[in-house]
Design brief:
The protein is 56% helix and 17% strand. The protein folds into two domains: 49 residues; 83 residues, GMP Synthetase, Chain A, domain 3 (2-Layer Sandwich). It is an alpha+beta fold and 154 residues long. The chain contains five helices and three strands; from the N terminus they run H-H-H-H-E-E-H-E. A three-stranded mixed beta sheet has the order 1-2-3, with helices on one face.
Length: 154
Amino acid sequence: MKAYIISIAVCTVICAVVNMLTPENWKKYVGVVTGLVITLSIASPIIGIFGNDFLNGFSYTAKTNGEKGEAVLYNEIKTQLEERINSDAKSRLSKDFAKDCSVRTTVNMTDNGEVSGVKSIYVYGDRIDAVIIGRLREIYGAEEVKYVGLEKTP
């Protein structure tokens, strides 16, 4: 408690000296800053309470076994990317070409987990023509775009 009172007193004295030494046209601004400094020095015990290590015991590292954990992560990324492309392609086909289709894509990934492109796009549902196939190939950079049939995937 003694150190706390001394720190407030020293802070107040320093701020008062700074206020006395500042030119008249800067007094308002310096007064605001020194007031904030004094307020923060008074509030320092409260800040100290919140500054405790409340994240003690929290672990943000993934507990995986090296390459096996990376493979799981890469598969998860690949799956999510394929789902997003499926959804986007389905909405494009509906909006741009008035086709009721579902889409299944396959994404290529390197051993480092980098996406190297869309390998294939399979379209189920309404028949699509060469123009639509070319457009899908252009948009997604797919190696292969194929109309598979009427059966829709879930």
